[in-house]
Design a protein that fits this description.
Layout: H1 3-20, H2 24-36, H3 41-73, H4 75-90, H5 92-98, H6 108-115, H7 120-150, H8 153-183
Length: 189
Amino acid sequence: MDLPTLIAQYGYAAVLAGAVFEGETVLLLAGYSAHRGYLDFAAVTGIAWLGGALGDQCFFWLGRFQGQRLIARRPALRLRVGNAFRLIERHPVAIILTMRFMWGLRMALPIAIGMSRVRWRRFLWLNLLSAALWAPLVAGIGWTFGALLARQPALLHHYEHWVMGAMAAAALLFRAVMRRSRHMPEPPR
């Protein structure tokens, strides 16, 4: 099975699953794939919007009903939720609208918001708006990257598999570095 067939067959399912769980990498690749004609850009953004909104809504309700039990069992999550609480208390609307762009707190924020006093209807509408901003923006970055590469068609066709692999590897490396920096002990004062 070649790459275009594989993307056409499983691409939308990957976008949905990726959008539920911190899906920037998948969405960037889907935007790139849409530029190449393997996926439809409107479908990619619609599915990413739906997956992102549903995922964060589920994490909100998880925080609302199981938040205390969840953070008691996971010390690393407890620290991230604590940091998220401080942000939510100061700027709840801004945090809900920008939570998708806060790497490292992406799942902790909706859980913390669910544990906070933010009303579920307010979260629902702001979450839908946030996902509506996030999906086309991130997919559009992937599309734009594809457009820039398309200026060199022979080069793109020859190295397309490597370009997609490099994009995925760079995103995973960035995520690993971010996670490692969060787990490093603070220097003594």
